Amino acid sequence: MNKGIAIYPGSFDPPTNGHLDLIQRGAKIFEELVVAILRNSEKSPMFSVAERAEMLRQLTADLSNVRIDTFDGLMVEYAKSIGATCVLRGIRAISDYEYELQMALMNRKLEPTLETVFMMPADKYSYVSSRLVREVAQAGGPVKGLVPEVVEQKLREKLDPAYKLQEPTLIEVPKRRKRKA
Length: 181
Ligand code: PNS
Prior knowledge:
globular
């Protein structure tokens, strides 16, 4: 296990199974992992920072070396203020790489002692993002399996009555009878 504190910064609006998968992996390799929610995001969020923090607290309650915090301003400054030496970020697909590379190099320029570590979430979550979860949920689609149940419930509360969380219904197609010759 890596000595020291690592931070996993992000928007987490809402937390997905991909985030949780990464937190679980990070918790195994770092002594302490701080999941840090950005407070001053310019986007108009679906969930308040307090709601996101509460969901993440519930989701990580069984991980004793994980704690949830929020931050404002530069991530490197926040990392320094809590004595973190590593930043954990997830890369799902090649499309994430360019943005993540830019961010990691900018952060290195700002604070050369802070290392960024990339981890891959389970491949079954490689297409899952908070943005797509919001989009599907807002349009009334099912997000089962993409987000933890706690989050599914919060989405249901937020979007009800428009939001339906049923499994997609499979329409039974009657078998075609063989034609008589
Ligand atoms: O989940 P996201 O939205 O991809 O997370 C992006 C986040 C919050 C990690 C990034 O925007 C960030 O660190 N913002 C804080 C401001 C900052 O330090 N910007 C310079 C980063 S190069």
